[in-house]
Amino acid sequence: MSKTATSPQAWELAERIRHRIQSEQLSDGSFFMTEAQLAEEYDASHTVTREAVSRLQALGILEGRKRKGLIVRHPDLIRLLSHSMPSLLGSEEDGRELEVLRYVIEVGAIELAVKFGTAKQIEELTATMDRLETALLREVDQEAAYALDLQFHLQILQMTGAKLVMGMQEVLVRFFQAVSIPLALKKEFTPELAERIVWEHRELCNAIRARDVEHARALIRLQFRQVITQLEQDEVASNAANDESAALNSD
């Protein structure tokens, strides 16, 4: 039987195994069974079973052990995202989607950062802000400024105290360091833009220090204005295309 023919069966088997692990609430490190036992219990061929197991191993749900069989693992979402990131560099649209993801994370997390950020974290954020201002207005070091901007936003995420949020942001930061900074350096960088960036970041620092959630939320949205503008433009273009399609179909 060809690989193409077995793939749907493997997907179905992988889902049945995943559901079983979840419903039985098997703990991390629990012994599951061998591939041979799986094939017999689910009445599946060894090829289908092996492919299903491979899919679950790729997701971090199962781990194979020599002479022992399959071990249940709790998936590491951050590791999966990190490994998937290189495949999301294929197009400009993919890059925009990641920017939207970053926007959603930061806007959603700012309230937690304001409420739970410690005095030490706020001082560290202020120190990064001071270095950013120096890079922008005194040294005019654009590359250093973009790196400090990413550090600034990562520190805000760290204030939430949520490990998953921090981990996702760290993965995104690595992506933006590798992709966005080189692209950003090609854009025109004016003194007016530098002053605006400094003001926005300084105001955000002040809002966090004052524990002003609404002001902080407004400022974080302001810093992602380009993402919002792009989403609005995409919606307008999509609506126009739908209207044009509807008009053609009605003729």
Task: Provide the descriptors you would attach to this structure in a database record.
2 strands; disordered N terminus; mainly alpha; two-stranded antiparallel sheet; 251 residues; extended
Give a verbal description of the structure.
By secondary structure, this protein is mainly alpha-helical. The chain is 75% helix and 3% strand. It contains twelve helices and two strands; from the N terminus they run αααββααααααααα. The protein has helices at 3-23, 35-41, 46-58, 77-84, 92-116, 119-138, 142-158, 163-178, 180-184, 191-209, 213-223, 225-250, and strands at residues 62-65, 69-72. A two-stranded antiparallel sheet has the order 1-2. A hairpin with a 3-residue loop joins strand 1 and strand 2. Helix 2 crosses helix 3 and helix 6 runs antiparallel to helix 7 (142-158). The longest helix is centred in the last third of the chain and has 26 residues, at 225-250. It is extended, with a radius of gyration of 24 Å.
